[in-house]
Write a structure and sequence with these properties.
The structure is a single chain. By secondary structure, the chain is an alpha/beta fold. The chain has two domains: 146 residues, Rossmann fold (3-Layer(aba) Sandwich); 108 residues, 3-Layer(aba) Sandwich (Rossmann fold). The protein has a five-stranded parallel sheet with strand order 5-4-3-8-9, with helices on both faces. It starts with 8 loop residues before the first strand and ends with a helix.
């Protein structure tokens, strides 16, 4: 008998925070609390089992049409989630909020990722594939991503950079972030790597850091070319460019596109 046609059996797994989670295997009603992991579930072939997603789950487009929207990543609609009767929720330590996750975990199995670099992203993809009964698909996606990144040129830093995620106030990617790891793989030295996570920075701090490259992400703040001038005034010698925020910060199956994008944009 096919495993997916068998009655669900309890499976005890460990998430990326070291929490033990008992999941019915295979889970049949999954709620995804993170956009990049929603896309991963669909790419694993599990779209028909995803019953709830957030309003920010843009990929694939059908996700928000076939699944119920359960609020945002940091403001869950608990009544909607309860109505969905999920047997597994998949979230992330940073993108979700602790109080909401703790409340959900008292009622449902909640598996959390915690990702600061590419190896952790690949581990997440494989583990989500395993706990959802899509192990082979997870291995295939992770292998494809790893192969793409292995083909990049040496990650030796060739230039300095600042990666902006927000405006008013200016916020940048610092150390301990997935973006910081991606910058290294592109061959860029993060001038704000001495600051943790996503710090606010002033124009004076930016001028003092004097990055050779200023990267303006398309998300979460929708930077556009119209924002170049204000930053060029602060750092006249810097090369300023828009970059695809999803390909720098989404740590799921979208990473299959990232290595090729980095080669094209940064000559890696």
């Amino acid at each position: 008998m096919s495993l997916l046609n068998s009655p669900a059996l309890p499976l005890t797994v460990t998430d990326q925070l070291g929490r033990r989670v008992v999941v019915p295997f295979p889970p049949e009603r999954i709620v995804s609390l993170v956009p990049s992991q929603t896309e991963l579930l669909f790419d694993l072939g599990l779209g028909n089992r995803v019953v709830g997603v957030t309003k920010f789950c843009l990929h694939p487009p059908e996700a928000r049409q076939t699944a119920a929207i359960i609020g945002g990543t940091k403001n869950f609609d608990f009544d909607k989630i309860e109505a969905l009767k999920p047997d597994l929720l998949i979230g992330n330590k940073e993108e979700n909020y602790q109080a909401g996750i703790e409340q959900l975990a008292t009622h449902y199995p909640v598996w959390l990722s915690d990702i600061g670099n590419l190896p952790q992203a690949l581990a997440m993809i494989r583990r989500v594939g395993f706990i959802t009964g899509a192990k082979e698909a997870g291995e295939s996606i992770a292998t494809e991503i790893a192969t793409g990144f292995a083909a990049l040129a040496s990650a030796e830093a060739v230039a300095s950079a600042a990666y902006f995620i927000w405006r008013k106030p200016y916020m940048v990617a610092g150390s301990g972030t997935f973006i910081d790891d991606m910058l290294r793989r592109v061959g860029l030295r993060n001038v704000f790597a001495h600051l943790s996570r996503y710090p606010e920075v002033t124009a004076e701090q930016l001028a003092a850091a004097a990055p050779q490259h200023i990267l303006l992400s398309t998300e979460p703040y929708p930077f556009r070319e119209k924002h170049f001038a204000e930053l060029q005034q602060i750092c006249p010698a810097a090369k300023i460019q828009l970059v695809d925020g999803e390909l720098f910060s989404w740590y799921g199956s979208r990473l299959r596109q990232s290595a090729q994008y980095f080669r094209r944009e940064f000559g890696r």
